[in-house]
Amino acid sequence: MLEYKLSDRKKYFVKVDKWYPSSQICHCCGYRNPLLKDLRIREWDCPNCNHHHKRDVNAAINIRNEGLRILKESA
Ligand SMILES: [Zn+2]
């Protein structure tokens, strides 16, 4: 249903692997922080680039980036 609605509006539907660790990866530098497996951590600072992250915002950006990467690969 979602796929159909999006193609109707000339938008793309890309599935991102459900094991893609979107909330563990710093969207600025790509550093992966395994401590983020703990769902109680809502905000964190990247130990590599010091960027302050809100968990869900960072995850959303990573999912968008991963979707764009997959799209590019399949083009
Ligand atoms: Zn970082």
Explain what the structure shows.
There is one protein chain. The protein has 75 residues and is mainly α. The protein has one domain (16-74). The protein has 2 helices and 2 strands; from the N terminus they run αββα. Strands 1-2 form a two-stranded antiparallel sheet. A hairpin with a 6-residue loop joins strand 1 and strand 2. The radius of gyration is 14 Å and the shape is elongated. Bound molecules: zinc ion. The site of zinc ion (ZN) has 8 residues, from loops.
Q: What's the helix and strand layout?
A:
Layout: H1 2-8, E1 43-45, E2 52-54, H2 55-74
By DSSP (H or I, 4+ residues per run), the number of helices equals 2
Structural class given helices, strands, pairing? mainly alpha
Distance between the termini: 23 Å
Helical content stands at 25-40%
How many separate domains?
1
Radius of gyration computed on alpha carbons: 14 Å
Query: Residue ranges: pLDDT <50 for 5 or more in a row?
Result: none
Task: Give the SSE order as H and E letters.
Answer: HEEH
Q: Profile the largest sheet.
A: 2 strands, antiparallel
What share of the residues does DSSP label as strand, in percent?
A: 5-15%
Number of strands: 2
Heterogens? zinc ion
| Main β-sheet, spatial strand arrangement | 1-2
Gross morphology is elongated
Mean pLDDT, to the nearest integer, reads 93
Q: In short, what is this structure?
A:
By secondary structure, this protein is mainly α.
List keywords for this structure.
single chain, 75 residues, mainly alpha, 2 helices, elongated, binds zinc ion
